[in-house]
Amino acid sequence: MNRITRAACALAIGGLVATAGGVAHGQCDPNAGWRVYSPTGDISEILVDGEIAWVAADGGIIRIDLSQIASENPEQIKITDEDGLASPLVTCMTRDGLGNFWVGTRENGISIFDRFGQHLMDLSSFEELWSDRVIALDSRGDRVVAVSVDEFSSSGARIGGGYVILTVSPENGLTVEPASGNSVEVAQAVLIEDEGIWFGTSGLGLYYRDETVAPAAFTQVLTASGEGLLSDNVKSLVRAPVFGQSGEWLWIGTSAGIQVYDPGSGTLNVFPVLNGQNIIDLWRDGGTMYVLSELGSSRDLYTIDLNAAPAALVVPRSDCLAATDYVPRDVAVDSAGRVIVGTRQQGFSVRDGLTWICPPSLGPHSPGGADLAYSEDGVLYFCTGDQNRTNPITNGIGIFDGANWSSLTRGDGIAASNMVDVEVWRDGTVWFGSSVSAAQGGINRYHPDSGLLEAYNPEAANVAHRTLGRNVYSIRQDADENLWMVFGQSGGGLSVVDAQTEQITNYPINTIFSGTSELLRDVAFDSRGYLWICSNDQNLSPAQLYVIDTNGTIHDLGDDRIANYSMSTEVEDVGEPFAIAIDSNDRILIGGAEGLAYGEILGGNSLGASWSQIIPTSSQSGGRLPPPYRAIELDWDENWWLGTESQGLVRVTNDLTKWQWYDQLEGCPLPDQSVGGIFSEDDAKVIWVSAATGGLARIDLSAAASAADENRRDVQAFPNPWNPDQDGLLGFAALPIDVPLDLRIWTTAGELVFETLGSLGTRSWDGSNLRGIRAEAGVYLVTAVSADGENTVWEGKVAILR
């Protein structure tokens, strides 16, 4: 690798000169105001600078002044991609000899900040790094070693990799040392010393780069099969003395215990305490070694006195972190002796003297990934679960009151960590349900004022709280504010809580619809109060659409009228259905693994609908392949908001003609492309979005709504209804003749029938589609958009008779 000098790295006082921070987003909707809330609970590494701690998480970095930790609101800031961080998915950190902090990310290289959190520059594989997947950093003086992997497997395992050595100085800026780009397989720990560099790997033992010879020699030093290493999975490397021995030895933390190694003599000894345990992290603070270790489900922090016979003393766990699912990740000690422990999904805690303190969170404790709800008093509740149960890291319910973040987890007594759906009821109580199994989990009712949690499940101690199932997929309210719970399990169905009496009535689907699928997914209500319920495949029974008319008596199943339809043969085949929604005009949309089904519910007391499949055109999709559709939400204008599994978020107009994407491909700061939950805050004209790994987003569309209202006009087709065989051409009133317009005719299913672009003068249509074939009888939508940059929109309808 060639020697590279970065001109931008001329040094100012105390570090590198700052370059422009932030992430440049593309042509996202200019009227949309974005606010992204990245999670801060999943800690990957902690560094200290005196009494300042830098805490790295999946959602960015928290810089906190530990001298203020005992105060109610210690000084802390959050550094995210909006502040110049290349990616909020941080994997590792180090501090160079100039006091600058180097932050490695999972996919986007390295960002460098000064000690105050000011962004300086980014490094990537284009010039400096082995690859952008950075997993380990270490520094000594003016040298920094950056270790990367070639790729991550689908399970997250590291594949391949290499390292580079960089030098920073006031005179030369940043340079890459010649011939330092060497391969080192699956390295995960690195330690720079005066005469060489140690590398611990996740399966190949210990390597050493000997820099006392020219050229430097890179060799495998210790392995389990050769030299007696306890495990080839080396996780931590620290220099420290060994009681009774001279000099400082290399302490090696492995997945099977601690060993100490004297490179001069080649002596490798097993440290006699914590043997057989998975060593997560080692941190030396003077004469004390701090050890995070794991043995089965037991995970604790220990101290070892380096000036005494080997013994490990357990440090009492933090009492402000939930004991359930407690998984420590990293440990550090500041200059005043405060101990900081970072965990998986529970944030970090600071031990000041004998007291553990958990500072206020600056973001969600965990990524969202599932449903959201917003209360009338301005509190957001979000689920961290996964309906498919493929995400092993779930952590209950998150709460945000607009200023402060909190959570409800297993440690607080909720039914399960994998909470997937939430609803705020008429009385302000919050109901949330878990998707675990028919035997575990269930529903909780949370009273925000008192903190009371009530359990609802088939075996609830309170008989009045017994529901049909535990494996919840959705919770919805009808127009009368009755609360419906949908269960996806054998023997399942629905349970409804009466809004007036709170009496629970169960609807066993296998009894109502014998021999069909009981694995329900979602429910919606039409203007008559009828229930439309979609189910998953089960055994030989295909996915179903059930319709129930309760006759206004939710407690009397005997007078119900029912119908059921096969999704694949009688509705539209969307694969596994995930979500269903109905607008005020009884138009219904079902999203599934393979597409969208659109229906227009028949009038009167019919239990049927007319159906069509929605396949976006290439101009509507922008080249994306949207399915699976995971979430559907109607906003204040009855636009359909669709969340996809991997293609982001899209707003579709109610007539299904216009698709506006709000995703990373469009240049929007959507946290990630997998959207599991959407909530429309109608009064404020705000959309809340829950992404699988990146956290939450708030999209303020009040400006866009105002602009749309100002620019929207009506267009009248004449004659209407129109018979092309008798009436001649169709004309359009209220369209300016001197403004270029893009005029389009659509079916109600969103299929483009006719268009003329940039036209001037009087517009008309002869009734032929784009293929020259006359359009069939039915209702068609008319849209005209000004092509002069003002984006004025005319909308209307026409009925064709044949």
Q: Which features would summarize this protein structure in a list?
A:
802 residues; mainly beta; Immunoglobulin-like; five-stranded antiparallel sheet; five-stranded mixed sheet; 3% helix; globular; disordered N terminus
Radius of gyration computed on alpha carbons: 31 Å
Please, what is the average pLDDT? 89
Please state the second-level CATH architecture of the domain at 715-800. Answer: Sandwich
Please report which band the strand proportion falls in: under 5%, 5-15%, 15-25%, 25-35%, 35-45% or over 45%: over 45%
Helix content bin:
under 10%
- Tally of strands: 69
- Give the CATH level 1 class of the domain at 715-800: Mainly Beta
What CATH calls the topology of the domain at 715-800 is Immunoglobulin-like
Regions with little confidence, pLDDT below 50 for 5+ residues: 1-26
Q: What general form does the structure show?
A: globular
Through-space gap between termini = 74 Å
How would you characterize the largest beta sheet? 5 strands, antiparallel
Judged by helices, strands and strand pairing, the structural class is mainly beta
Structural account:
With 802 residues, the protein is mainly beta. It has a domain at 715-800: Sandwich (Immunoglobulin-like). The protein has 5 helices and 69 strands. 46% of the residues are buried. The model is unreliable at 1-26 (pLDDT under 50).
